[in-house]
Amino acid sequence: MDRQYAGLTKLALGVLTFNSVLAIYNSWGDASSVSFVLAADAILVLLFLCLRALEQERGGRGRDIRTRAAVWTMTTLLSALFASRVAPLMPPVVGAILWAMAVATAAGGFWAFFLN
């Protein structure tokens, strides 16, 4: 089954790379935008690797909890990263709702990974 999705994974990483190169090219003079794209890509790649490790684990409970903690941390980082870029562009009320949604997503992920 793992082989079945290998081509799809490669295609997704290729699209991510192409999109990131275009984003960096279009915002080359803006260091914060370039660092945002690079940070988001690094977090996404690490997240994919951790999810793959989580799917392949069968027994080891200690490693399982560490991998889940890493997945939760990276998803929370991505939510905060995107909220920090989008919220200033919105009206204040919408920005507050956006941050509330990011916090709710992090709290829901914590509940799902660790408390449930």
From TrEMBL:
<protein>
    <submittedName>
        <fullName>Uncharacterized protein</fullName>
    </submittedName>
</protein>
<feature type="transmembrane region" description="Helical">
    <location>
        <begin position="34"/>
        <end position="54"/>
    </location>
</feature>
<feature type="transmembrane region" description="Helical">
    <location>
        <begin position="93"/>
        <end position="115"/>
    </location>
</feature>
<dbReference type="Pfam" id="PF20100">
    <property type="entry name" value="DUF6490"/>
</dbReference>
<keyword id="KW-0812">Transmembrane</keyword>
<keyword id="KW-1133">Transmembrane helix</keyword>
<feature type="transmembrane region" description="Helical">
    <location>
        <begin position="69"/>
        <end position="87"/>
    </location>
</feature>
<feature type="transmembrane region" description="Helical">
    <location>
        <begin position="7"/>
        <end position="28"/>
    </location>
</feature>
<dbReference type="InterPro" id="IPR045501">
    <property type="entry name" value="DUF6490"/>
</dbReference>
<keyword id="KW-0472">Membrane</keyword>
